[in-house]
Design brief:
Layout (H helix, E strand, L loop, with lengths): L1 H32 L4 H8 L2 E4 L6 E4 H26 L6 H26 L16 H11 L5 H24 L7 H19 L6 H17 L4 H9 L5 E2 L2 E2 H25 L6 H8 L2 H28 L10 H10 L4 H11 L3 H28 L10
Antiparallel strand pairs: 1-2, 3-4
Helix pairs in contact: 1-5, 1-10, 3-6, 3-9, 3-10, 4-6, 4-12, 5-6, 5-15, 6-13, 7-8, 8-9, 11-15, 12-13, 12-15, 13-15, 14-15
Length: 393
């Protein structure tokens, strides 16, 4: 039990603190872009950098090195979290996983449908994945600020929903937001992943061979046309659970990398991507834009009704049980908090649109929807009280 609970407590603590770091970085980006130093923001993130050599040299601007490179580490940690949940967490038991899994599905389908209802006849419709996302760091950080007013079961329920949401979002990124695929590069990436599996089979315990091959897999995935962060997820899922040469590899990697992900990579991502002009004209355009309204209403209305509706339906059919100490009123608050899409929403917006004007409007919609979702969730959860009755009835 301690092997399961202790890493979870540590994860929640780091995620909550990381949410604060993320908020600070996003605020700095917004202030920076709306200050007289706005030109330096654009100049910094547009600087080009080349890494590697021969056929594997990659040239990107700094913003894309963060989005394509550092975010691969973030998604590797996400892969580790998913693997841990599948093996030792809430998702290991199909019956226990059914309720949050269906709730997450409801919180993905309805927001996407609402977004498409606003944008179906425009070129903005391709961003339908933006409104699906849940930002674990921000969401867990908000619950941490609410303290004892939110039961541990509610926090676990939200975390499980967010992880299932991540699985869906990763699948959408791989399947939808991939333009063209180079088969030779893709096969090279698959070959690298095969080498990782073989190294595991022969019992290689050192980390450096996996890091070297992981770098090659990342570069091949990038060149293949599939987004490079998918390589991070797959490498995370291939990480062994349990002890290898007396060391719990998955827990060790998660313990070492999660602080870097939460306190360095995600804040850098926010700093590089959250810079949006909030002038009167920009806000006025966003208020009239079906794109911004579709994202905001998807994150707020879609998440609340999608997650709550799916949860109550499962409970009514007797196909799921709420975690210990969670009563039904808290479900509305958890569903609202899940509408904080920020990081992954920004990430998908960058993939969905080539037009900077659309990306800027999408960012305003993400900001508005995430902020309103957080405020509604905090208000609902602050008024609710956890019960000690099993099943949260």
């Amino acid at each position: 039990m301690r092997r399961v609970v202790d890493p979870l407590k540590e994860f929640l603590h780091a995620e909550a603190a990381g949410g604060i770091a993320l908020a600070v970085a996003a605020l700095i980006a917004v202030v920076w872009v709306n200050s007289p130093l706005a030109g330096s923001y654009t100049d910094l993130w547009s600087q080009e950098l080349t890494l590697g050599g021969w056929q594997l040299s990659v040239t990107e601007d700094l913003q894309h090195w963060v989005n394509d490179g550092l975010m691969a580490v973030f998604f590797f940690v996400v892969g580790l979290e998913i693997k841990r949940e599948l093996v030792t967490g809430e998702l290991r038991d199909p019956r226990a996983a059914a309720l949050p899994a269906v709730a997450a599905l409801g919180g993905v389908v309805l927001p996407a449908a609402i977004f498409l209802a606003w944008t179906w006849d425009s070129n903005a419709a391709q961003g339908w994945g933006i409104a699906m996302a849940t930002d674990i760091a921000f969401a867990v950080g908000l619950l941490a600020l609410l303290g004892s007013r939110v039961s541990p079961g509610a926090k676990l329920f939200l975390l499980t929903i967010a992880i299932v949401d991540d699985i869906i979002a990763i699948s959408v990124i791989a399947a939808v937001y991939t333009d063209t695929v180079s088969l030779p590069w893709l096969l090279s990436a698959v070959g690298g992943l095969t080498v990782v599996v073989l190294l595991r089979r022969v019992g290689v315990g050192q980390i450096w061979p996996y890091v070297a091959i992981g770098g090659v897999v990342w570069a091949c995935t990038l060149e293949s046309g599939v987004h490079a962060t998918i390589a991070g997820v797959l490498l995370g899922l291939l990480t062994p659970t349990g002890e290898v040469h007396g060391r719990d590899v998955l827990v060790t990697l998660e313990h070492r990398l999660h602080p870097w992900s939460a306190f360095v990579i995600i804040p850098l991502f926010a700093l590089a991507n959250a810079g949006v002009v909030l002038s009167g004209s920009a806000l006025g355009e966003a208020v009239r834009s079906p794109l911004a309204l579709g994202i905001a209403s998807g994150l707020v209305v879609g998440k609340i009704l999608g997650i709550s509706g799916a949860t109550f339906l499962m409970l009514r059919l007797g196909w799921g049980v709420l975690p210990y100490g969670v009563h039904r009123a808290q479900i509305w608050g958890v569903a609202a908090v899940a509408g904080i899409g920020f990081t992954v929403s920004l990430f998908i917006a960058d993939l969905a649109y080539d037009d900077p004007a659309l990306t800027e409007v999408a960012k305003i919609g993400i900001f508005a929807g995430s902020l309103l979702s957080g405020l509604i969730g905090a208000a609902v959860l602050s008024r609710s009280r956890a019960t000690a009755e099993p099943g949260g009835q």
